[in-house]
Amino acid sequence: MTLRHCLGPVPCARTTVRRQAKEERLTASRDCALPPDAPSWWVTLEGMPTVEARRSHLLRHHPAFDPASLRELIILGAAVEGQRLAALCGPLGIRIAAISDDDPAKIGTSLLDHPVVATHELAKFDRATPVVIASHRVVGAAERLSRLGFSAVAPFAVLQALDPKRFPPHMFYTGVLEDTWNNREHYRWLAAELADDRSREVLEAVLTFRQTFDPCVLAPVVEPELYQLTGLLTYGHDEVYIDGGAFDGDTIRLFSSRVGGRYEHIYAFEPDPKTFAILKQYFASEPRVKPINAGLYRCEATLRFRDDASRGAIFADDGGTEIAVTTIDNVMGEGRVTFIKMNIEGAEIDALTGAEQTIRRWRPKLAISAYHRPSDLWRIPRFVRRLSEDYGLFLRQHDGGVIETVLYGIPRS
Predict the structure, then answer these.
(1) Which one of 54, 149, 270, 342 is least enclosed by Cβ atoms within 10 Å?
(2) Please, which residues bridge with residue 115 across strands?
(3) d(C-alpha 228, C-alpha 404), whole Å
(4) For the segment 290-342, what is each residue's pLDDT rounded down to a tens digit?
(5) Which CATH number, 3.40.605.10, 3.40.50.20, 2.40.50.840, 3.40.50.1110, labels domain 31-174?
Protein backbone atom coordinates (compact mmCIF):
# COMPACT_ATOMS: atom_id res chain seq x y z
CA MET A 1 0.00 0.00 0.00
CA THR A 2 1.27 3.47 -0.81
CA LEU A 3 0.56 6.88 0.69
CA ARG A 4 -2.35 7.65 -1.61
CA HIS A 5 -4.22 4.60 -0.27
CA CYS A 6 -3.96 5.94 3.28
CA LEU A 7 -7.21 7.87 3.64
CA GLY A 8 -5.77 11.11 2.28
CA PRO A 9 -2.38 12.80 1.92
CA VAL A 10 -1.67 13.83 5.51
CA PRO A 11 2.09 14.53 5.71
CA CYS A 12 4.22 13.49 8.65
CA ALA A 13 7.89 13.00 9.44
CA ARG A 14 9.99 9.88 9.92
CA THR A 15 10.27 8.59 13.41
CA THR A 16 14.06 8.53 13.83
CA VAL A 17 14.64 10.48 17.05
CA ARG A 18 18.18 11.74 17.56
CA ARG A 19 18.49 13.19 21.03
CA GLN A 20 21.61 14.28 22.76
CA ALA A 21 22.75 12.64 25.99
CA LYS A 22 20.84 13.28 29.20
CA GLU A 23 23.59 15.48 30.60
CA GLU A 24 23.07 17.94 27.75
CA ARG A 25 19.48 18.66 28.78
CA LEU A 26 19.18 22.20 30.04
CA THR A 27 17.79 23.39 33.32
CA ALA A 28 16.60 26.83 34.34
CA SER A 29 19.36 29.27 35.24
CA ARG A 30 19.57 32.24 37.54
CA ASP A 31 21.24 34.15 34.67
CA CYS A 32 17.95 34.22 32.78
CA ALA A 33 15.43 35.96 35.04
CA LEU A 34 12.31 37.63 33.66
CA PRO A 35 11.37 41.13 34.78
CA PRO A 36 8.40 41.04 37.17
CA ASP A 37 6.27 43.12 34.81
CA ALA A 38 6.89 40.95 31.72
CA PRO A 39 3.61 40.80 29.75
CA SER A 40 1.90 37.45 29.42
CA TRP A 41 0.97 35.93 26.09
CA TRP A 42 -2.73 36.42 26.82
CA VAL A 43 -2.39 40.15 27.53
CA THR A 44 -0.05 40.83 24.64
CA LEU A 45 -2.10 38.97 22.04
CA GLU A 46 -5.22 41.01 22.81
CA GLY A 47 -3.38 44.13 21.69
CA MET A 48 -2.48 42.66 18.30
CA PRO A 49 -5.30 42.80 15.75
CA THR A 50 -3.45 40.92 12.97
CA VAL A 51 -0.64 38.47 12.36
CA GLU A 52 1.41 41.27 10.83
CA ALA A 53 1.01 43.20 14.06
CA ARG A 54 2.51 40.19 15.81
CA ARG A 55 5.41 40.21 13.36
CA SER A 56 5.99 43.91 14.03
CA HIS A 57 5.93 43.20 17.77
CA LEU A 58 8.55 40.48 17.27
CA LEU A 59 10.74 42.89 15.33
CA ARG A 60 10.51 45.46 18.12
CA HIS A 61 11.64 42.74 20.51
CA HIS A 62 14.65 41.91 18.26
CA PRO A 63 15.54 45.09 16.33
CA ALA A 64 19.09 43.95 15.56
CA PHE A 65 17.68 41.08 13.50
CA ASP A 66 15.64 43.09 11.02
CA PRO A 67 16.06 41.09 7.80
CA ALA A 68 15.95 44.31 5.79
CA SER A 69 19.06 45.73 7.46
CA LEU A 70 20.94 42.69 8.77
CA ARG A 71 24.43 42.73 7.23
CA GLU A 72 26.58 40.77 9.67
CA LEU A 73 26.09 38.05 12.26
CA ILE A 74 27.74 35.36 14.32
CA ILE A 75 26.34 31.82 14.11
CA LEU A 76 26.30 29.68 17.25
CA GLY A 77 25.79 26.08 16.19
CA ALA A 78 27.53 24.25 13.34
CA ALA A 79 25.10 21.34 12.98
CA VAL A 80 22.28 21.10 10.44
CA GLU A 81 20.55 24.40 11.24
CA GLY A 82 23.84 26.27 11.46
CA GLN A 83 24.87 24.87 8.09
CA ARG A 84 21.54 25.89 6.62
CA LEU A 85 21.81 29.44 7.98
CA ALA A 86 25.38 29.78 6.75
CA ALA A 87 24.34 28.74 3.24
CA LEU A 88 21.57 31.36 3.24
CA CYS A 89 23.79 34.24 4.33
CA GLY A 90 25.93 34.54 1.20
CA PRO A 91 23.12 35.05 -1.34
CA LEU A 92 21.46 37.50 1.06
CA GLY A 93 24.60 39.62 1.40
CA ILE A 94 25.05 38.85 5.10
CA ARG A 95 28.64 38.58 6.33
CA ILE A 96 29.42 35.76 8.74
CA ALA A 97 31.76 37.15 11.39
CA ALA A 98 32.26 33.77 13.09
CA ILE A 99 30.79 30.31 13.50
CA SER A 100 31.07 28.64 16.89
CA ASP A 101 30.09 25.37 18.51
CA ASP A 102 30.85 23.58 21.77
CA ASP A 103 30.94 20.11 20.19
CA PRO A 104 34.61 19.03 20.29
CA ALA A 105 34.08 17.10 17.05
CA LYS A 106 33.13 20.32 15.23
CA ILE A 107 35.68 22.73 16.72
CA GLY A 108 38.53 23.22 14.28
CA THR A 109 36.53 22.05 11.27
CA SER A 110 35.48 24.40 8.48
CA LEU A 111 31.99 25.44 7.42
CA LEU A 112 31.83 27.35 4.11
CA ASP A 113 35.49 28.33 4.59
CA HIS A 114 34.79 29.61 8.12
CA PRO A 115 36.69 27.87 10.92
CA VAL A 116 34.42 26.61 13.68
CA VAL A 117 35.60 27.97 17.03
CA ALA A 118 34.62 27.23 20.61
CA THR A 119 31.97 29.50 22.13
CA HIS A 120 34.39 31.08 24.61
CA GLU A 121 36.48 32.36 21.69
CA LEU A 122 33.64 34.68 20.73
CA ALA A 123 34.92 36.94 23.49
CA LYS A 124 37.33 38.31 20.86
CA PHE A 125 34.47 39.75 18.78
CA ASP A 126 32.49 42.98 18.99
CA ARG A 127 29.75 42.41 21.58
CA ALA A 128 27.28 44.42 19.47
CA THR A 129 27.45 41.85 16.64
CA PRO A 130 24.12 39.99 16.40
CA VAL A 131 24.43 36.33 17.37
CA VAL A 132 22.00 33.77 15.95
CA ILE A 133 21.58 30.54 17.92
CA ALA A 134 21.20 27.93 15.18
CA SER A 135 19.98 25.19 17.49
CA HIS A 136 16.64 24.08 18.91
CA ARG A 137 18.19 24.19 22.40
CA VAL A 138 18.45 27.88 23.17
CA VAL A 139 18.32 28.55 26.92
CA GLY A 140 21.82 27.42 27.80
CA ALA A 141 23.31 29.05 24.71
CA ALA A 142 21.60 32.35 25.44
CA GLU A 143 22.91 32.28 29.01
CA ARG A 144 26.51 31.67 27.86
CA LEU A 145 26.33 34.49 25.33
CA SER A 146 24.86 36.83 27.93
CA ARG A 147 27.77 36.11 30.25
CA LEU A 148 30.15 36.93 27.39
CA GLY A 149 28.48 40.33 27.08
CA PHE A 150 26.66 40.04 23.75
CA SER A 151 23.72 42.43 23.59
CA ALA A 152 21.85 41.06 20.56
CA VAL A 153 21.14 37.32 20.78
CA ALA A 154 18.23 35.45 19.19
CA PRO A 155 17.29 31.96 18.03
CA PHE A 156 17.35 31.28 14.29
CA ALA A 157 13.55 31.06 14.61
CA VAL A 158 13.38 34.85 14.83
CA LEU A 159 14.60 35.24 11.25
CA GLN A 160 12.34 32.42 10.10
CA ALA A 161 9.30 34.10 11.65
CA LEU A 162 10.18 37.62 10.51
CA ASP A 163 10.95 36.72 6.90
CA PRO A 164 9.90 33.15 6.02
CA LYS A 165 10.54 33.72 2.31
CA ARG A 166 14.23 34.48 2.70
CA PHE A 167 14.70 32.24 5.76
CA PRO A 168 12.51 29.17 5.06
CA PRO A 169 11.23 27.85 8.39
CA HIS A 170 12.07 24.51 9.89
CA MET A 171 8.82 22.59 10.32
CA PHE A 172 8.92 23.36 14.07
CA TYR A 173 8.35 27.04 13.20
CA THR A 174 6.33 26.93 9.97
CA GLY A 175 3.41 29.31 10.45
CA VAL A 176 4.15 29.72 14.16
CA LEU A 177 2.88 33.31 14.40
CA GLU A 178 -0.17 32.51 12.31
CA ASP A 179 -0.99 29.47 14.44
CA THR A 180 -1.05 31.36 17.72
CA TRP A 181 -3.20 34.12 16.26
CA ASN A 182 -5.62 32.00 14.23
CA ASN A 183 -6.08 29.38 16.94
CA ARG A 184 -6.13 31.55 20.04
CA GLU A 185 -9.53 30.16 21.06
CA HIS A 186 -8.11 26.63 20.95
CA TYR A 187 -5.33 27.76 23.26
CA ARG A 188 -7.85 29.33 25.64
CA TRP A 189 -9.70 26.01 25.62
CA LEU A 190 -6.44 24.19 26.38
CA ALA A 191 -5.62 26.50 29.28
CA ALA A 192 -9.02 25.73 30.79
CA GLU A 193 -8.68 21.97 30.21
CA LEU A 194 -5.20 21.51 31.68
CA ALA A 195 -5.31 19.66 34.96
CA ASP A 196 -2.85 21.62 37.11
CA ASP A 197 -1.33 25.06 37.55
CA ARG A 198 2.12 23.86 36.49
CA SER A 199 0.69 22.86 33.09
CA ARG A 200 -0.80 26.32 32.66
CA GLU A 201 2.55 27.88 33.56
CA VAL A 202 4.20 25.74 30.89
CA LEU A 203 1.57 26.71 28.31
CA GLU A 204 2.07 30.38 29.17
CA ALA A 205 5.85 30.07 28.81
CA VAL A 206 5.70 28.11 25.55
CA LEU A 207 3.26 30.52 23.92
CA THR A 208 5.21 33.55 25.14
CA PHE A 209 8.38 32.00 23.68
CA ARG A 210 6.61 31.49 20.36
CA GLN A 211 5.59 35.14 20.42
CA THR A 212 8.92 36.67 21.49
CA PHE A 213 11.52 33.91 21.00
CA ASP A 214 13.05 35.08 24.25
CA PRO A 215 14.77 32.03 25.81
CA CYS A 216 14.38 33.51 29.30
CA VAL A 217 10.67 32.79 29.34
CA LEU A 218 11.31 29.03 29.13
CA ALA A 219 14.04 28.76 31.75
CA PRO A 220 11.73 28.72 34.81
CA VAL A 221 9.56 25.84 33.51
CA VAL A 222 12.17 23.40 32.17
CA GLU A 223 12.10 20.00 33.91
CA PRO A 224 14.94 17.91 32.43
CA GLU A 225 13.56 14.46 33.31
CA LEU A 226 12.04 13.44 29.97
CA TYR A 227 8.74 11.49 30.00
CA GLN A 228 8.45 11.96 33.73
CA LEU A 229 5.44 13.60 35.37
CA THR A 230 6.60 13.81 38.98
CA GLY A 231 4.01 12.58 41.45
CA LEU A 232 1.43 11.84 38.78
CA LEU A 233 2.93 9.30 36.37
CA THR A 234 3.06 6.11 38.40
CA TYR A 235 3.79 2.54 37.35
CA GLY A 236 2.75 -0.97 38.29
CA HIS A 237 4.81 -4.14 38.06
CA ASP A 238 3.06 -5.39 34.92
CA GLU A 239 3.36 -2.44 32.53
CA VAL A 240 2.89 -2.97 28.79
CA TYR A 241 4.78 -0.09 27.23
CA ILE A 242 4.63 1.07 23.62
CA ASP A 243 7.60 3.21 22.57
CA GLY A 244 6.82 5.09 19.36
CA GLY A 245 10.12 6.44 18.08
CA ALA A 246 12.34 4.04 20.03
CA PHE A 247 15.56 5.16 18.30
CA ASP A 248 18.39 3.00 19.70
CA GLY A 249 16.47 2.11 22.87
CA ASP A 250 17.41 5.13 24.96
CA THR A 251 13.86 5.76 26.17
CA ILE A 252 13.29 2.05 26.75
CA ARG A 253 16.28 1.99 29.06
CA LEU A 254 14.93 5.10 30.78
CA PHE A 255 11.54 3.44 31.27
CA SER A 256 13.08 0.19 32.51
CA SER A 257 15.16 2.03 35.10
CA ARG A 258 12.08 3.81 36.40
CA VAL A 259 10.14 0.58 36.89
CA GLY A 260 13.17 -1.26 38.28
CA GLY A 261 13.09 -3.69 35.36
CA ARG A 262 9.63 -4.91 36.40
CA TYR A 263 7.38 -4.83 33.34
CA GLU A 264 5.42 -7.33 31.30
CA HIS A 265 6.23 -6.31 27.73
CA ILE A 266 7.66 -3.49 25.59
CA TYR A 267 6.82 -2.87 21.94
CA ALA A 268 9.52 -0.71 20.32
CA PHE A 269 8.72 0.92 16.95
CA GLU A 270 11.65 2.24 14.91
CA PRO A 271 11.47 2.53 11.09
CA ASP A 272 15.05 3.50 10.23
CA PRO A 273 16.85 0.27 9.24
CA LYS A 274 20.28 1.23 10.58
CA THR A 275 18.97 2.48 13.88
CA PHE A 276 16.64 -0.51 14.14
CA ALA A 277 19.60 -2.89 13.78
CA ILE A 278 21.23 -1.26 16.82
CA LEU A 279 17.95 -1.39 18.74
CA LYS A 280 17.41 -5.07 17.92
CA GLN A 281 20.95 -6.04 18.81
CA TYR A 282 20.84 -4.25 22.15
CA PHE A 283 17.71 -6.11 23.28
CA ALA A 284 18.49 -9.43 21.60
CA SER A 285 18.69 -11.21 24.96
CA GLU A 286 15.55 -9.58 26.42
CA PRO A 287 12.46 -11.53 25.25
CA ARG A 288 10.10 -9.02 26.85
CA VAL A 289 11.20 -6.33 24.38
CA LYS A 290 9.80 -6.68 20.86
CA PRO A 291 11.54 -4.37 18.34
CA ILE A 292 9.35 -3.61 15.30
CA ASN A 293 10.94 -2.17 12.17
CA ALA A 294 8.08 0.19 11.28
CA GLY A 295 6.81 3.64 12.00
CA LEU A 296 3.47 4.37 13.65
CA TYR A 297 0.73 5.82 11.48
CA ARG A 298 -3.04 5.70 10.94
CA CYS A 299 -3.00 2.72 8.55
CA GLU A 300 -0.80 -0.07 7.25
CA ALA A 301 1.29 1.27 4.38
CA THR A 302 4.66 1.74 2.78
CA LEU A 303 5.39 5.45 2.65
CA ARG A 304 8.02 7.40 0.80
CA PHE A 305 9.67 10.39 2.36
CA ARG A 306 11.79 13.24 1.14
CA ASP A 307 14.84 13.33 3.40
CA ASP A 308 15.45 17.07 3.75
CA ALA A 309 17.41 17.64 6.95
CA SER A 310 16.74 21.36 6.89
CA ARG A 311 12.97 21.11 6.96
CA GLY A 312 12.23 17.68 8.42
CA ALA A 313 11.78 14.38 6.56
CA ILE A 314 8.37 14.87 4.99
CA PHE A 315 6.34 12.04 3.47
CA ALA A 316 5.72 12.57 -0.24
CA ASP A 317 4.99 10.42 -3.28
CA ASP A 318 8.27 11.57 -4.88
CA GLY A 319 10.39 10.81 -1.83
CA GLY A 320 13.53 8.76 -2.33
CA THR A 321 13.28 6.48 0.71
CA GLU A 322 10.60 3.98 1.66
CA ILE A 323 9.59 2.91 5.16
CA ALA A 324 6.89 0.61 6.47
CA VAL A 325 4.26 2.05 8.80
CA THR A 326 1.65 0.31 10.88
CA THR A 327 -0.89 1.05 13.61
CA ILE A 328 -1.01 0.27 17.29
CA ASP A 329 -4.50 -1.15 16.86
CA ASN A 330 -3.32 -3.65 14.23
CA VAL A 331 -0.25 -4.73 16.17
CA MET A 332 -1.95 -5.04 19.55
CA GLY A 333 -5.40 -6.29 18.53
CA GLU A 334 -7.23 -6.63 21.83
CA GLY A 335 -3.97 -6.90 23.77
CA ARG A 336 -3.54 -4.85 26.93
CA VAL A 337 -1.53 -1.60 26.89
CA THR A 338 -0.73 0.52 29.95
CA PHE A 339 1.58 3.26 28.65
CA ILE A 340 2.12 4.82 25.21
CA LYS A 341 4.97 7.23 24.46
CA MET A 342 5.27 8.93 21.06
CA ASN A 343 8.05 11.12 19.71
CA ILE A 344 7.67 10.58 15.97
CA GLU A 345 8.46 13.95 14.46
CA GLY A 346 5.08 15.13 13.27
CA ALA A 347 3.18 11.86 12.86
CA GLU A 348 1.71 11.86 16.38
CA ILE A 349 -1.90 12.63 15.41
CA ASP A 350 -1.81 10.04 12.63
CA ALA A 351 -0.41 7.49 15.08
CA LEU A 352 -3.04 8.36 17.70
CA THR A 353 -5.69 7.82 15.03
CA GLY A 354 -4.23 4.36 14.46
CA ALA A 355 -4.37 3.68 18.22
CA GLU A 356 -7.94 4.86 18.79
CA GLN A 357 -9.42 1.44 19.64
CA THR A 358 -6.55 0.56 21.96
CA ILE A 359 -6.77 3.88 23.81
CA ARG A 360 -10.55 3.69 24.20
CA ARG A 361 -10.37 0.11 25.43
CA TRP A 362 -7.45 0.29 27.86
CA ARG A 363 -7.06 4.02 28.68
CA PRO A 364 -3.26 3.77 28.89
CA LYS A 365 -1.06 6.53 30.26
CA LEU A 366 0.05 8.79 27.40
CA ALA A 367 3.23 10.82 26.84
CA ILE A 368 2.96 12.51 23.43
CA SER A 369 5.40 15.02 21.94
CA ALA A 370 3.47 18.19 21.09
CA TYR A 371 5.95 20.46 19.31
CA HIS A 372 6.84 19.13 15.87
CA ARG A 373 4.35 21.46 14.23
CA PRO A 374 3.09 24.62 15.96
CA SER A 375 -0.54 23.42 15.91
CA ASP A 376 0.39 20.13 17.62
CA LEU A 377 0.31 22.05 20.90
CA TRP A 378 -3.50 22.32 20.73
CA ARG A 379 -4.45 19.67 18.16
CA ILE A 380 -3.00 16.75 20.12
CA PRO A 381 -4.82 17.64 23.38
CA ARG A 382 -8.04 18.10 21.38
CA PHE A 383 -7.59 14.65 19.86
CA VAL A 384 -6.87 12.99 23.19
CA ARG A 385 -9.88 14.67 24.77
CA ARG A 386 -12.05 13.40 21.90
CA LEU A 387 -10.85 9.87 22.55
CA SER A 388 -11.71 10.00 26.23
CA GLU A 389 -13.11 12.56 28.65
CA ASP A 390 -11.50 10.52 31.41
CA TYR A 391 -7.99 11.82 30.74
CA GLY A 392 -6.43 14.52 32.86
CA LEU A 393 -4.27 16.63 30.54
CA PHE A 394 -0.85 17.80 31.72
CA LEU A 395 1.82 19.77 29.88
CA ARG A 396 5.53 19.75 30.67
CA GLN A 397 8.63 21.32 29.07
CA HIS A 398 11.69 19.07 29.20
CA ASP A 399 14.30 21.10 27.33
CA GLY A 400 15.32 24.71 26.86
CA GLY A 401 13.86 25.41 23.44
CA VAL A 402 10.98 24.59 21.14
CA ILE A 403 11.70 20.87 21.55
CA GLU A 404 10.49 18.41 24.18
CA THR A 405 7.11 19.92 24.97
CA VAL A 406 5.17 16.82 26.07
CA LEU A 407 1.46 16.29 26.62
CA TYR A 408 0.63 13.74 29.28
CA GLY A 409 -2.74 12.04 29.43
CA ILE A 410 -3.37 10.43 32.82
CA PRO A 411 -6.62 8.48 33.38
CA ARG A 412 -8.56 10.00 36.26
CA SER A 413 -10.17 6.74 37.37
Answers:
(1) 149
(2) 110
(3) 12
(4) 999 999 999 999 987 655 544 445 555 666 678 899 999 999 999 999 999 99
(5) 3.40.50.20
